[in-house]
Write a structure and sequence with these properties.
The structure holds four protein chains of four kinds. By secondary structure, chain A is an alpha/beta fold. Chain A has helices spanning 42-50, 104-109, 119-128, 145-157, 175-192, 203-209, 227-230, 237-245, 284-288, 373-380, 420-430, 438-444, 461-473, 491-507, 519-525, 543-548, 553-560, and strands at residues 4-13, 16-26, 31-36, 58-65, 68-71, 87-90, 163-167, 195-200, 212-217, 220-226, 300-301, 333-340, 350-357, 362-367, 388-393, 403-406, 479-483, 511-516, 528-533, 536-542. In chain A, the strands form four sheets. A seven-stranded mixed beta sheet of chain A has the order 6-7-8-3-9-10-11, sandwiched between helices. In chain B, 53% of the residues are buried. Classes of the chains: A alpha/beta, B mainly alpha, C alpha+beta, D mainly alpha. Bound molecules: adenosine-5'-triphosphate (2 copies) and magnesium ion (2 copies).
Chain lengths: 568, 322, 522, 271
């Protein structure tokens, strides 16, 4: 018997349909992954299933939870009694999903059965998600993203739901934590034979964790199949495209084969196959007739010209070597003995950190959440003052062209009251450039030009992040600092952005300080890396060497936990 | 580390109180100056529209040092104040302290009661309305609040008087009763009158704040975890309280300083009433005392607000109050 | 009240003020437990010697007395003094009434009178009455129950000095010293020989008085008098509507109709001996030009103002002296008005006004301002109406409203060529106002030897009838120069629970122990 | 299929009417100040005077129409002025912080501490009252509320990433404040402003009530209302007409305010 069935879900937004003809089935103890690019309607699907759609967005369809059957048209109230115990939702953005003024412990306890709201229980729950008991007394703003998300996970598990919907639950987490969290999820799933709907853009995660995978695009389901075969032998060209965009850890590709173009808005999708405009195989029939999802229950695809097995194999063009080490001239910026301590009780965020970035170089900083990466970045751009240590710049004048930063959290990184165009124009002017580069800039980051007139609130996460990147590169800074720039993006966008990074480096001989937790990603961009752990730099060196022979055992652990290749 | 250590709460409060004292000093000088600039002569006012005899005028001026030069008058006054003597009312020949004693208390009760009404009605209604945004309740209360802001307080007062004082004959029509509960009873209508406009404002602010919080992700997340309405409300209110609390601080100051109309309408012997007449009479000692008192109350409420901020917002607590 | 109720009929400037029109039916003095009376504004000191204003007079009248007191016709009769004579123009010998006691039971002595004279004369303790006693040398005890007061120069008006309605309230030194020099304050209160004693006084709140059963004049019908201060007129009406008050003094004439329509309420009218008129500062251009003054005077349609702005409650004034001040001398109300009529008589005549202006120094007109107390709405309306009338003559009058205290400053000030006076005569002395308005230092800065001489004469003229002639003569001469334009003599209206009425309610009622006159209707 | 925005329509009608009064009172109510003392007070329904006349025989309705200007223009100026002050000083205090912040909030405290009557009276005494003086005084006295509101909102905005990005772009403090922060605190400022218009309307009529309003003879609702109190018995129109006008206008302004506010991002308001 199924834990959850969703039939013919339609989500209607104020300006048109957001999700169309969606159905899915979850079995107890099983994991279904829902993958798709940003704006494809994953979150809306999740919100619809939990009756948490934002104002002005409505849903129709039927939800069957065990023995209860709910018509989504009846509105949120119908689902209220089911939330928590029957199904829970873990949201995408750990930065906003916890109340800023309540202690984490309290927020976890709230969902616990009244009789269990004890410190020991809370401590146990925190321990379950590998957090120290002290976190119960801390406030979310004191924690780094990863820590917050684990608090959130503990909170959503508090009422022991039968079905858990994770909306990109590990997006903000670094690999080691991600693996831990996913393992944790899997364990809990087993213990409670809980069904898990895992919304993610990380194909590695999907492939590794899911029994079944659903591929969504522009509010439609394009392909459904077993976790192990969907990506090895994709039927839908889009699925294949996604797989190919995914960066490999082993080698550095000349160029990631990203899917061209960008996602159509869910409501102005073309007639015929929604993917046709971006599809290399599309013909007139594809552009006129809308294919329906068909095939045997285990393997369904919505395509007029599905791929045959032989067409589906991946042929990567491996690059000669990693990007040439830059001329070892004077450093663009050199950091010495940087230390920053926020609270007397907690360990320092930065502990005697020294790094050097030379012109033209792409330097990576990898490390788990809370290791001080963001703090370091903030110190570099002057948003944070270090307690001790020095930062020396080659560029004397401290202006917009010295360094720019792309933040981790796209949703609040843009001025809500300014149009995208205005934000970009401003950034351009800050770098002494001309405002009519705005359209070019938008295209550069793979956004339709019309977006110049939009405001951030109308964009999905990924779209917002592209704008943020566009703004950062607008002044053509000597150093571009990217703090987890792709951690909330889906693969095809990620691929585009990584390609973009490399393009930008060549075109503008841009120097990049690339902060991420994703080794595969950093692999594609950088030449050297620094590995940070608990605010210290534990290891550094050329990427290839490091991959071949990691010295520090934390580094080894890091590599081991990259998703996609099972921990064996 | 001592109470007055840098960044400590104790030090903060100490600094604020010191600043308040300076404020009062400045204020006292300004008011004293302004009063001097206004036309009119207290001695003359004492005699009324009669043929004033120079001797009498002289005698009065001498009695209240009105014949001294301006600065000297001010410092005479200041000196006495520092010795706890606020002088004697020119108009009634009564020591200012005794004159103010029970009036302050009355005005304080009035402001307090109407503050209570404002908060106990405005805030819960604001919450309820935001919670059921667009509901009949929301619509009706919003309309009421909209009218409330616009209604001139004396018009409201007289209307209430007519309805509750005369028609229904529930509440007394005028005066402040004879102490204790009776006084509170007498103050109900005035307090409502006073609370009317500002209550509407508080309602709107609360509604806005709560609505804003309800849009936040953490609310959706809380619901998704199956939290009860009550619990979610708990989360939201704590967050919404922060902007609301600041406004409430202002509200009390506003009420305390704005009782004049109501006191006149309801014939209440409060400081508002006294101030209005003393200002025109140029009864300098009284005006000074009331002004400083009002200023003090307002400054203290402002301080309380900041402390409240400190109490409810951990981010502020982390940063520490500057 | 019912429409049949004659008191609610407004209008009728028949000038026969003083006659109280109350509802018919017999009434008698019956025991009234509590009488609640609402005053329209607070007093801050119940001793009138300390603070100006009318309402503390009304309160003091219940508590303390003078040597003499006016009867209902305004004639002075004995109060604490049984009788008095005047051996020579500057000497007054008062023989005290026997068996008078203070409210604490202690007997009244001649020394108390002597002290009280000193008190009334003291500039700091009695700034408000001192001026009246400036001409008094002193008082001495000239017998067990006899006090002699001597003046510096003859002044027949002095008789009105030792009167509670005006400038003397008899108390005893021990009461004042007991409250270390304070008088009339909430703490000190005020002790006299009157029919009531003050039990509590809270400024802006009210006064409570208890009957003194040992009062020499007999037991008053009202046991407890509660006086409440209610500044907002509508609130006062509502308070009456709700039955919270029995009586309201000096009600707003504008709201007279509402009062009359109020449940179980009568409205009593009586002249209040008030004078309202324009003052020109004859030292200030253009008002130094008699033609200008005449022009404005002629533009005043006084009959209409009284009719419309006062709803007929008041009468067109023809002199600075009010009829009630000569009534007792010339016989009756009608005679009094006849005597005063010729003094100032410039009927409304716009053409004549224009003619006057044409001859003046400013034939094209001019711009001036006038300061009006916010407490005198009718005056403000008067000036607005006047402004509208004279506008077509090219004269612009800007009416500025201001707190009453600022208005005081406009009186006789060189900055305000055009001003007005609203004067409440305290006494029945026909020379009360002219001894300010025609004497030296008058607000109009008007000087005229002839007038001055007549003023001096009347001060010494012992025969009342002759004195009135002198006073009328002086005003005739002065008013020919139009330094002032008498507008109207006012009426006061009092609202009262129609269970009760006030025995021959007149101009002097509230200045004498008025609660004694409260009767209950059958 | 767009919904008809009823709110602005409902609020708009009275505001338009008042607007017309303000602009064209000269034509609509030519003899507003025309006295006719012989007529004196007449009740509503008198021929030629739908709402009767006052003591001086002036037509209540025309007087009210002519009174719109001084009743409405002043409050708008007050609210707008104090909002500008609030935006400027509040933003400076909230963003620059430090000594400036302390100085400004002390200044706000000082203003808040001054009893309005005192100031109103003193100024009235000094400069012979005068409408615009009163407006000026009220503007200054209203500003502290705006300053504090804005300051709070600014502090909330200042720590958000988009501001940090702006800092990294090394934009001038001025630009960050007025191009980035101010637009995001504008909703709360505008809400306060609209409420302030209503408050100022009432405040000015209250000053008339205490005798510190426009001079007599000048048409003004507040003035008319307080004069009308005495006429309640003879002509209820005298108090009802200006009273209703004040209430309805204030209400309409607020309604409009709410509607606009909803059109702004509610989130920005709450933060
Ligand atoms: N509050 C909203 N009102 C109306 N439309 C919205 C709203 N939020 C999102 N949308 C639209 O709905 C579509 C689907 O959004 P959704 O958040 O489900 O995408 P997603 O698959 O979750 O993307 P991401 O991977 O970035 O989370 C997007 O095109 C977005 O523009
Ligand atoms: N404003 C702050 N107040 C207190 N502690 C802070 C603050 N900002 C960061 N920290 C602490 O500093 C440490 C490092 O934080 P930082 O954000 O630099 O880590 P990170 O490597 O960026 O983590 P993530 O990969 O999750 O972004 C964390 O333990 C965090 O708790
Ligand atoms: Mg999503
Ligand atoms: Mg980080």
């Amino acid at each position: 018997m199924n834990a959850l069935e969703l039939h013919d879900l339609q989500v209607q937004g104020p300006s048109g349909p957001i999700v169309t003809r969606m159905d899915l089935t979850l079995q107890p103890g099983r994991t279904v992954a829902l993958v798709g690019e940003s704006g494809s309607g994953k979150s809306m699907t999740a919100k619809a299933m939990t009756g948490l759609l934002p104002r002005g967005v409505t849903a129709t369809g039927t939800l069957v939870l065990g023995d209860t059957r709910v018509s989504l048209a009846d509105g949120p109230s119908a689902l209220a009694p089911l939330r928590g115990r029957r199904l829970a939702l873990l949201l995408q953005n750990p930065f906003t999903s916890l109340s800023p003024v309540h202690r984490c412990g309290m927020q976890i306890a709230a969902a616990l059965p009244a009789d269990q709201r004890t410190d020991t229980e809370i401590a146990r729950r925190l321990d379950e998600v590998d957090l120290p008991a002290r976190v119960a007394q801390q406030y979310p703003f004191e924690l780094s993203g990863g820590m917050r998300q684990r608090v959130a996970l503990a909170a959503s598990l508090a009422a022991d739901p039968q079905v858990l919907i994770g909306d990109e639950p590990t997006t903000a987490l670094d690999v080691t934590t991600q693996r831990e969290v996913l393992d944790l999820l899997a364990r809990i799933q087993r213990e409670r034979s809980m069904a898990l709907l895992l919304i993610t853009h990380d194909l590695g995660v999907a492939r590794e964790r899911a029994d079944r995978i659903l591929v969504m695009y522009a509010g439609r389901m394009l392909e459904e199949g077993p976790g192990d075969t969907v990506f090895t032998t994709p039927r839908h060209p889009y699925t294949a495209g996604l797989r190919d965009s995914e960066p490999p850890l082993e080698d550095r590709l000349e160029r990631l084969p990203a899917i061209a173009g960008s996602v159509p808005r869910a409501w102005d999708v073309p007639v015929g196959c929604v993917f046709a405009p971006r599809c290399s195989r599309a013909d007139d029939h594809c552009r006129t007739a809308d294919p329906v999802l068909e095939g045997d229950p285990t393997r369904r695809v919505a395509c007029w010209k599905p791929l045959a097995d032989d067409e589906a194999v991946l042929v990567p063009q491996v690059a000669a070597a990693s990007p040439d080490a830059a001329d070892t001239a004077g450093a663009l910026v050199s950091v010495r003995g940087l230390t920053r301590r926020f609270t007397a009780d907690a360990p320092p965020a930065l502990d005697d950190v020294s790094i050097v970035v030379r012109p033209g170089e792409a330097v990576g900083i990898v490390g788990e959440s809370g290791s001080g990466k963001t703090t370091l970045a903030r110190c570099l751009v002057g948003l944070e003052r270090a307690d001790t240590g020095t930062i020396e710049w080659a560029r004397a004048t401290d202006d917009a062209r010295r360094a720019q930063i792309v933040f981790q959290d796209p949703t609040s990184a843009l001025n809500p009251s300014m149009t995208i165009g205005a934000s970009l124009a401003e950034a351009l002017r800050a770098g002494g450039r001309d405002r009519d580069e705005v359209p070019a800039l938008l295209q550069l980051v793979g956004l339709p030009v019309e977006y110049a007139q939009r405001r951030p609130s109308g964009l999905s996460g990924g779209e917002q992040q592209r704008v943020a990147i566009a703004r950062a590169i607008a002044p053509r800074p000597e150093l571009l600092i990217c703090d987890e720039p792709v951690s909330s993006l889906d693969v095809s966008v990620q691929a585009q952005i990584l390609n973009l990074m490399n393009d930008l480096r060549e075109q503008l001989d841009l120097t990049v300080l690339f902060i991420t937790h994703d080794l595969a990603v950093v692999r594609q961009v950088v030449h050297r890396v620094y590995v940070m752990h608990r605010g210290r730099v534990v290891e550094s060196g050329v990427m290839d060497d490091l991959l071949r022979a990691p010295q520090h055992d934390y580094t080894r652990q890091l590599f081991a936990s990259v998703p996609g290749r099972s921990a064996s | 580390m001592s109470v007055l250590a840098r960044g400590s709460l104790g030090r903060y409060v100490a600094v604020r109180l010191a600043a308040t004292l300076l404020l009062l000093l400045a204020l006292s000088f300004i008011v004293f100056g302004l009063l001097h600039l206004t036309p009119g002569d207290p001695a003359r006012n004492l005699l009324g529209p009669k043929n004033p005899s120079p001797e009498a005028l002289e005698a009065i001026r001498a009695k209240y040092h009105l014949d001294e030069p301006f600065l000297r008058q001010y410092f005479l006054w200041l000196g006495n104040v520092l010795h706890g003597d606020f002088g004697t009312s020119i108009r009634s020949d009564v020591p200012v302290t005794t004159l103010l004693a029970e009036r302050i208390w009355l005005t304080f009760q009035l402001a307090g009661l109407s503050f209570a009404i404002t908060v106990l009605v405005g805030v819960p209604l604001g919450i309820a309305a935001a919670w059921r945004a667009g509901s009949a309740l929301d619509r009706s209360v919003s309309v009421a609040s909209i009218v409330g802001v616009g209604a001139p307080s004396y018009a409201v007062g007289l209307m209430l008087l007519y309805v509750f004082g005369v028609w229904l004959d529930i509440f007394p029509v005028y005066g402040s009763g004879d102490g204790g509960l009776d006084t509170l009873w007498h103050l109900v209508l005035p307090a409502i009158t006073l609370a009317f406009g500002i209550g509407a404002l508080v309602f709107k602010l609360t509604r806005t704040a709560v609505l804003g919080e309800l849009q936040q992700d953490y609310v959706a997340f809380a619901y998704s975890r199956g939290l009860a309405q009550r619990q979610v409300r708990g989360l939201v209110l704590r967050n919404a309280l922060i902007p609301v609390a600041t406004s409430l601080g202002l509200v009390f100051g506003f009420l305390f300083g704005g009782t004049i109309l109501v006191e006149v309408t309801f014939a209440l012997a409060g400081i508002g009433n006294l101030l209005a007449s003393s200002v025109t009479f140029k009864d300098i000692p009284v005006v000074q005392a009331i002004t400083l008192l009002t200023a003090l109350v307002i400054a203290l409420t402002a301080l309380t607000v900041d402390l409240l901020y400190y109490a409810v917002d951990p981010r502020v607590r982390k940063r520490g109050l500057q | 009240g019912s429409d049949s109720d004659s008191t609610s009929t407004t209008g009728g400037t028949d000038g026969t003020g003083g006659s109280t029109d109350t509802t018919g039916g017999s009434a008698s003095a019956q025991e009234i437990d509590v009488l609640t009376v609402a005053f329209p504004s607070s007093v801050s000191n119940i001793y009138p010697g300390q603070e100006a204003g009318n309402f503390n007079y009304y309160i003091a009248a219940l508590v303390a007395e003078g040597l003499a007191a006016p009867d209902s016709s305004g004639k002075l009769v004995g109060a604490l003094a049984e009788s008095w004579e005047q051996p020579d123009p500057t000497t007054y010998v008062y023989t005290l009434r026997s068996g008078v006691t203070f409210s604490d039971g202690s007997p009244l002595t001649a020394d108390d009178i002597v002290y009280s004279v000193g008190l009334a004369k003291d500039e700091t303790l009695s700034p408000n009455t001192a001026y009246y006693w400036a001409n008094v040398e002193g008082a001495e005890k000239t017998g067990e129950s006899q006090v002699t007061i001597t003046l510096a120069s003859p002044d027949v008006a002095f008789e009105w000095g030792p009167v509670a309605a005006n400038a003397m309230w008899v108390t005893a030194e021990r009461f004042v010293t007991a409250t270390n020099g304070e008088i009339g304050t909430p703490a000190a209160l005020f002790t006299g020989t009157g029919p009531y004693k003050v039990t509590s006084f809270e400024p802006d709140k009210g006064v409570e008085l208890e009957r003194v059963d040992t009062y020499w004049g007999g037991k008053a019908p009202v046991k407890t008098v509660k006086i409440e201060f209610i500044p907002e007129e509508t609130t006062r009406i509502l308070a009456r509507e709700a039955g919270d008050i029995d009586m309201a003094v000096s009600i707003s004439l504008d709201q007279e109709q509402q009062w009359a329509d109020t449940e179980a309420t009568d409205v009593l009218f009586a002249p209040d001996k008030s004078y309202v008129g324009i003052d020109f500062n004859t030292a200030v251009a253009p008002f130094d030009d008699i033609h200008v003054r005449k022009a404005i005077a002629l533009a005043c349609d006084r009959v209409t103002y009284v009719e419309k702005l006062l709803n007929g409650h008041g009468e067109v004034a023809t002199a600075l002296t009010v009829p009630e001040q000569i009534e007792s001398v010339v016989g009756d109300a009608a005679a009094a008005r006849a005597t005063l009529a010729p003094i100032f008589d410039l009927p409304y005549d716009l053409e004549a006004a224009k003619a006057e202006l044409a001859q003046s120094s400013v034939p094209e007109g001019f711009t001036t301002k006038v300061g009006v107390s916010t407490s005198a709405p009718q005056v403000s309306q008067f000036f607005q109406a006047l402004a509208a009338t004279v506008a077509e003559m090219g004269i612009t009058i800007e009416v500025e409203e201001m707190p009453v205290e600022q208005w005081y400053d406009t009186i006789g000030s060189p900055d305000w060529g055009l001003a007005y006076m609203w004067y409440f005569n305290a006494t029945g002395d026909p020379a009360e106002l002219i001894s300010w308005f025609l004497a030296e230092g008058n607000p109009a800065s008007y000087a005229n030897e002839e007038v001055a001489a007549l003023l001096q004469q009347q001060r010494e003229e012992a025969d009342p009838a002759k004195r009135v002639e002198l006073i009328v003569e002086a005003q005739k001469i002065a008013m020919a120069d139009v330094p002032y334009v008498p507008l109207w003599w006012g009426e006061a209206a009092t609202a009262i629970n129609d269970k009760y009425t006030i025995e021959d309610f007149g101009p002097y009622t509230l200045l004498s122990p008025w609660t004694v006159r409260i009767l209950t209707k059958e | 299929m767009k919904r008809i925005p009823w709110t602005p329509i409902i609020a708009g009608i009275p505001l338009t009417v008042v607007g017309i009064f303000v602009l064209f009172s000269g034509w609509i109510a030519p003899d507003a100040t025309q006295q006719d003392i012989l007529t004196g007070v007449t009740p509503p329904g008198t021929p030629g005077h739908p709402f009767g006349t006052d003591q001086l025989g002036r037509d209540i309705l025309q007087l009210a129409i002519a009174g719109a200007r001084s009743a409405v223009v002043g409050p708008i100026v007050i609210a707008f002025g104090s909002m500008l002050i609030g935006l400027l000083l509040g933003t400076l205090a909230g963003y620059i912080g430090g000594g400036l912040d302390i100085a400004l909030s002390k200044y706000a405290d000082l203003l808040l501490a001054l009893p309005t009557t005192l100031i109103a009276l003193v100024v009235a005494g000094l400069v012979d009252g005068g409408y615009w003086i009163t407006v000026l005084v009220l503007t200054v006295l209203f500003s502290p509320t705006d300053i504090r509101m804005v300051r709070g909102a600014v502090i909330a905005q200042a720590s958000r990433p988009y501001i940090e990005s702006a800092k990294v772009l090394r934009l001038s403090k001025r630009r960050i404040m007025f191009r980035h922060i101010v637009p995001n605190v504008l909703p709360i400022a505008l809400t306060t402003m609209l409420l302030n218009i209503a408050f100022a309307l009432v405040a000015m009529s209250a000053l008339s009530f205490l005798g510190f309003g426009v001079g007599p003879g000048t048409p003004d609702w507040g003035r008319q209302l307080s004069d009308g109190r005495d006429l309640l018995g003879q002509n209820w129109g005298a108090i009802v007409v200006p009273g209703v006008l004040i209430i309805v206008t204030a209400a309409a302004i607020n309604l409009m305010g709410d509607w606009l506010q909803e059109r702004f991002d509610a989130r920005a308001v709450a933060r």
